[in-house]
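Hey all, sorry for the wall of text incoming. These are the two entities for the joint prediction.
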Amino acid sequence: MIEVAGLKKRFKLTKDHKKNKVDDIDPREDKDYFHSVRDVSFRCAEGEVLGLLGPNGAGKTTTLRMISTALKPDEGSITIAGNDIVKKPLLGRKSIGFLSGSTGLYGRLTVKENIEYFAKLHGMKKSDIASRCDELFTLLDMHKFIDKRAENLSTGMKQKANIARAVVHRPAVVVLDEPTTGLDIMTTQTVIEFIKGLKAQGTPVIFSTHHLDEVALLCDRVAVINEGISCFDGTVEAFKQAGNSEELNQAFMNILTEKHNV
Amino acid sequence: MFEVYKKELKELLRDKKTLMFVVLLPVLIFPVIFAIVAFIGTQAALDADQKVNTYVIINGEYAQEFTDKVFYHKSFELYKGSKTFNTIEELKAGVTAGDIDMGIYLPSNAVKTLDNGEQSKWQVVFNDAKSINFLFDRVKELAQEYSDVLQAEKLKSFGIEESAHKSILNPIEVVKVDTADKRENLGEKIGAYLPYLLIPLVLMGATYPAIDLGAGEKERGTLETLLLTPITRTELVLGKFITLLTTSIASTTITVVSMGCWVAVALAFADLDFIKTAFSTLAVTDLLMIFVLLLPLAAIFSSLALAISIYARTFKEAQNYMAPLSMGVFFPIIISIMPNMELTAKTAFIPVTNVALAIKDIIKGTVDYTFVGLIFLATVLIAGALLAFCVKWFNREDVLFR
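and here's what came out:
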């Protein structure tokens, strides 16, 4: 179980940003700071897939980066199985597998070398690395290209390698930031199947997306963030009810509009 | 930390650009550049030496002996054109227009002027802006020969014996008794310039790979994944730092070995006794000492380059930031060759300058080992402080996620 409560994160505005400021409409900006995440809370239990939704710039990536321990929250807590990973970031890094559309591989290393490198950094033993790699290569149908350098891979192959890299250490929670963005149908299907596999294993999965068809297909729960604030956290059914629509797209729009007007 | 080091090294060794900067450039390009520069320099000097210059002497009859000497000199040829030259202004115009290479203006009869107890001032008109120009020296030499003849004749007319001329004209002769041996002389000449080669190479060996290890990781999106692994930032920085230290030292070692090989090759084909003697006086311990002094310097450059690289958002931005660093390294080397700059307890604490001065003293064979110890200590302290800064830098979100 992963639980996020009262997360807040602000970034100092650069001189350039202040100089080029067009208007004062954004409620998240004050004189010196941009309050990217103002109050975000949600939870995801074992075997659940949580879809993190929100318009562009809502604070989803910042939230996921805080969960992955790349960024430290200014306030709030993130607990995995009762351990606050804000206070114990190394524990968090061992427990989380993170994947985003922009995370890359080392181009001059082969796929196998890439995965093994991250496994070693996670402190895995040599024998365990070999068996785990083999398991993932079979699961993701990667055997054909594991000895190819990452720089020579197609986008689909790269994403498969990235998935293997993210979960090689058998993380307790998997966090995916728009994992299907820019992928073709075949690779998207691989990602979807992979998430389903994690769910079947009982691993909590949090993933941000703009594709509500993926939410309908995979998610048990939905959390919506708008302008850095949580405006919904609940089951998919509760999401439809709150948005007064059976259509997820419409429900999402209604929730955002309602919260905005409030 | 060791895993990061191993992986970084493996990746760098597979990068053609890095191999070019760290291995190929020191092995091939520098000796090639030196050979080209030496060839062009020698050729230019040879051309200048062999060139025959056209000339005009106004009032040449005032010093016929000198005029004849110029006429028969292999480097000069009398102007045979249609233009006439009677004044200094006409000579200047002739040189500027390219009609003649040189004009000599004799204002009066030199013998008569001497008889009047006055000095005859001759003017040589030529273009002195050319890179190598032997014109003036050659004319001066011929004029001096003529002047010596006049001088001797005049003294003889006073009844002074030829044997006494020398003592009268030059009653005091200052003779140099040099206590410096060949090695010290060579050290002063070569030792001052060796840091110009070695220190920038140490820097170059660190900067290019550093760009790949910092900004390159950011640009490729691998830094974020690396930050999410359970290794501490200190381990991460140390792994990257040691990689840069390795490439920096490797680049320097390859350069020195390559230079040594090229010197050996040159000595095998040419009779360069002076260089042979000078190099034979250098002990292996001297070279080791230079190497040891370059180690903490490489650590300083590696830390700086890594800190700059991780701050940059992109590869290109990092390259832009590295340029001032290179300039900043040359400045203290220039200080080390300024007059009266010596290795003292004070200069031993000026980064880069201290190592440059110590290298010079090591080559000269006059190094004070206390200062070497001081330099090593000071450089290690600075390197340590910069490394600590680097670790702190790697912990800042506003640096990593700019």
